[in-house]
């Protein structure tokens, strides 16, 4: 049988560390355009209590999203030990393309994947660049697409990248600006023939486009007098929180059932992370649905020191664990892990992945 196997991984985290103190002098407004009467110290303290985010990374001014995507890609290619000319596809999950650091204009022509191919110096005309705009679940959906290409026998090697520079897409007067951050993660997914199943075992994607479509949008600033970008991330935090807790745990449970697995068969759950409180609640509800309590360290966390890096969160976390840089978390031979995400539209997706024996 042909398996879809991750053979290399990499990530890039910007050098600029931004702590919560950075936001103390910001002027924050509510959704009705009224300035909040709380002090910056009160707002940031409450924010950290809820999200556990202490700091995040912002991309350097001289770099674009396509640049940091390339940095992560180079690491993954080197880790896989392949010739980049052998790649059949480069799939890049992102949300805003390259964002100009001054004018905050969004640039997706040429596509991010085409720019990455160019940056890598790939001459192979049959290496197809493909962009995936799917909200925060974009990298996992790109991984699923790469898997489908391999299973359909139209690809042997696929570079899958998740990269965003969300610090350039936020509304500086919206408290949610403190959540978002920048980064890139990448893997090489290869076709591997074996007499047993491993690699990607199963996957599922759900897309909610009813009222949920308005939970995460691009919008004008909550500050009616703001003269900057007219397209900023606008998140209805309470709506998102309720949606996630209601829909993500049963989606993962159903995927496990479809794969003939129990929650006890899973060694790690790598969740997209925007809010630590929300992730803890997701894991608690998932295990409770099986009548069980979540084991310690089942869900690695990075949001506290990296913030919400959107499509980069899960591949970055995967690479950190794989290379021993997120202690005490480790991957072992034959481990089964879940990669799962939820985000704009709203989309939910998950992959069950098994390491080789």
UniProtKB/TrEMBL annotation:
The keyword Acyltransferase applies. CDD domains: KAS_III. It comes from the Bacteria. Gene3D superfamilies: 3.40.47.10. Residues 256-354 form the Beta-ketoacyl-[acyl-carrier-protein] synthase III C-terminal domain. Residues 130-203 form the Beta-ketoacyl-[acyl-carrier-protein] synthase III N-terminal domain. InterPro entries: ACP_syn_III_C, ACP_syn_III_N, Thiolase-like. The keyword Acyltransferase applies. Pfam families: ACP_syn_III (PF08545), ACP_syn_III_C (PF08541). Keywords: Acyltransferase, Transferase. This is Ketoacyl-ACP synthase III. It comes from Empedobacter falsenii. The lineage of its organism: Bacteria, Pseudomonadati, Bacteroidota, Flavobacteriia, Flavobacteriales.
């Amino acid at each position: 049988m042909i398996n879809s196997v991750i053979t290399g991984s990499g990530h890039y985290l910007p050098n600029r560390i931004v702590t919560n103190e950075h936001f103390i002098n910001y002027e924050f407004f509510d959704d009705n355009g009224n300035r909040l009467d709380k002090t910056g110290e009160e707002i940031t303290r409450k924010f950290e209590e809820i999200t556990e985010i202490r700091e995040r990374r912002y991309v350097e001014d001289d770099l674009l999203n396509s640049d940091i995507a390339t940095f992560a890609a180079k690491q993954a290619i080197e880790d896989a030990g392949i010739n980049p000319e052998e790649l059949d596809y480069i799939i890049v999950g992102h949300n805003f393309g390259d964002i100009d650091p001054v004018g905050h204009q969004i640039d997706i022509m040429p596509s991010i994947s085409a720019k990455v191919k160019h940056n890598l110096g790939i001459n192979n005309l049959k290496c197809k660049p493909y962009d995936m705009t799917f909200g925060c679940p974009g990298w996992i959906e790109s991984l699923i697409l790469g898997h489908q290409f391999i299973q359909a026998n139209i690809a042997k090697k696929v570079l899958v990248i998740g990269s965003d520079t969300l610090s350039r897409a936020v509304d500086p007067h919206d408290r949610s600006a403190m959540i978002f951050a920048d980064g890139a993660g990448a893997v090489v997914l290869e076709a591997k023939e074996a007499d047993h199943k491993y690699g990607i075992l199963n996957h599922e994607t759900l897309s909610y486009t009813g009222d949920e479509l308005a939970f995460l949008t691009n919008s004008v600033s909550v500050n009616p007098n703001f003269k900057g970008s007219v397209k900023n991330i606008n998140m209805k935090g309470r709506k998102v929180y309720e949606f996630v807790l209601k829909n993500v745990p049963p989606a993962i449970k159903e995927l496990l059932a479809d794969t003939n697995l129990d929650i006890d068969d899973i060694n790690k759950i790598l969740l997209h992370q925007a809010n630590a409180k929300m992730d803890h609640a997701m894991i608690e509800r998932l295990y409770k649905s099986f009548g069980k309590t979540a084991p310690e360290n089942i869900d690695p966390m990075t949001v506290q020191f990296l913030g919400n890096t959107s499509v980069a969160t899960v591949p970055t976390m995967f690479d950190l664990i794989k290379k021993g840089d997120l202690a005490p978390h480790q991957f072992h031979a034959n481990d089964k892990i879940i990669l799962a995400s939820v985000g704009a539209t709203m989309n939910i997706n998950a992959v069950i992945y098994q390491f080789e024996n």
